[in-house]
Write a structure and sequence with these properties.
The protein is mainly α. Helix content is about 80%, strand content about 0%. Helix 2 packs antiparallel against helix 3.
């Protein structure tokens, strides 16, 4: 039992470190899910099944799901903003400020 506990503790430490070092948010969500799963295994190994079940549902399921959904929403908003700015850039005549009317009297 002590060997299994030591192995799970090392895996938790490694996955926590990887979650901090990964720079891409989508991969961070995956690593956080793995960390939640390992923490649930750790709680189960120390005979705390109620805490393990809670950690499994929240740490390995809900948090990565919410992070993934939030990232998808941000990407959709960024894509819409890029399309809108591209449309406005195409509609503006060259040499004018965006949103300003051209001066009919000249410069």
């Amino acid at each position: 039992m002590n060997d299994l506990l030591a192995l799970i503790l090392v895996l938790v430490a490694v996955s926590g470190t990887v979650a901090v070092l990964v720079r891409e948010p989508a991969r961070q969500a995956i690593v956080v899910g793995i960390l939640g799963l390992l923490l649930a295994l750790l709680f189960f190994a120390v005979q705390a099944p109620d805490v393990a079940l809670s950690e499994f549902v929240v740490g390995a399921g809900a948090v990565p799901l919410m992070l993934t959904l939030a990232l998808g929403k941000l990407r959709a908003q960024r894509l819409a903003a890029d399309q809108l700015s591209a449309r406005h850039a195409a509609a503006e005549p060259p040499g004018t400020w965006p949103g300003s009317a051209p001066n009919p009297e000249g410069p």
